[in-house]
Amino acid sequence: MRILITGAAGFLGSHLCDRFLAEGHTVIGLDNFITGNPDNIAHLTGHDRFSFVRHNISNYTYVAGALDGILHFASPASPIDYLEHPIATLKVGSLGTHNALGLAKAKGARFFLASTSEVYGDPLVHPQTESYWGNVNPIGPRGVYDEAKRFAEAMTMAYHRSHGVDTRIIRIFNTYGPRMRPNDGRVVSNFIVQALKGEPLTMYGDGQQTRSFCFVEDEVDGIYRLFMHGDSQPTNIGNPNEFTVRQLAEIVLEITGSKSQIVSRPLPEDDPKVRQPDITRARRMLGWEPRIDLREGVRRTVEYFRGVVR
Ligand code: UDP
Is 285 domain-assigned? Predict the structure, then answer.
């Protein structure tokens, strides 16, 4: 297949380039480097089935030749990035999704939307099933991401229903692993970088809020299977093992052997209190199951960060 990946230089996008190339496909990567990093795809330079275009998908996009699939992964994706790039975040979820869908329609390509557990907001249903409609503050600091992705889901279903585009919607839960930015601001990268530097681990609030962390290799496998064998309904892909933020801090200290303290910092506005995917749908439809537990995933991620943190 000839595949276009937006956000190709990002954390997930770059791992997707690797996976699609490994499966024998041809990949065109697209990124404007707002939060993506050229280092993430530097190893693909000169690959005969990979090409790269520096472009913002929120602007009109032309791609020459046939396309069989478009995976729309471009977006700032960390709470600190939404604060720094609120309008770009809204634009890439809305205008970017519209452009990518228009391209998919023109090429007769399958369209795959990277949506998010953030569509559930601060959830009142736990764990979250795909049938839950969510509890989102539209005007809070996270609203720029949550509402953009909710709009993106609506637009994707509209193209599916009105134009017959073959579409997929994945709701991605917290994912971590090599190629996260050290200053990404998210909890796994923050804690590992802080532990390796011997700085205090910044636990927001009392650390009793929960997340369910999926190692990138498992997430990418879920994405690939959903792209190949899924249907048009939204599908949660994440690891259902739930941890408090405090537990995560303790695991990071244990694995790095760091002597860092855990310090409390104010809880950001609208920080979801709990998050855990119900993955029944993915299990049944795709035979997908995460395999790498948190300790093993953190070990592999620590190895990566030892190489980039100084
Ligand atoms: N968090 C934390 N310390 C940090 C960064 C994040 O305690 O240095 C908390 C944050 O308040 C949230 C959880 O960890 O409850 C996950 O935050 P992240 O930014 O990774 O992603 P989110 O799931 O909130 O989108």
Answer: no
183 and 60 together in one domain: no
* Domain enclosing residue 148, as ranges: 2-175+214-237
Domain match, 44 and 186 both: no
For residue 211, the cross-strand partners are 243
- Residue 117: which residues within 8 A CB-CB, separation 6 or more? 128, 171, 172, 173, 174, 236, 238, 275, 277
pLDDT digits (tens, 9 = 90+) for 39-53: 999 999 999 999 999
**Best of 80, 192, 245, 275 for a ligand 1 pocket test (most atoms within 8 Å of beta carbon):** 245
SS3 label, residue 294: helix
Ligand 1 centroid distance, CA of 258 (Å): 20
Q: Is the pLDDT confidence value at 60 over 90?
A: yes
Q: What is the pLDDT of residue 263?
A: 98
| Total domains present in the chain | 2
- Tell me the C-alpha distance between 75 and 198, whole Å: 31
Q: Which residues, including other chains, have CB under 8 Å from residue 9's CB and lie 6 or more apart? A: 29, 31, 33, 36, 37, 38, 40, 41
pLDDT tens digit sequence for 130-154: 999 999 999 999 999 999 999 999 9
CATH number at residue 204: 3.90.25.10
pTM recorded for the entire structure: 0.97
Probe target for ligand 1 pocket from 80, 188, 196, 204, with the most ligand atoms within 8 Å of CB: 204
Query: The CATH number of the domain where 131 resides is what?
Result: 3.40.50.720
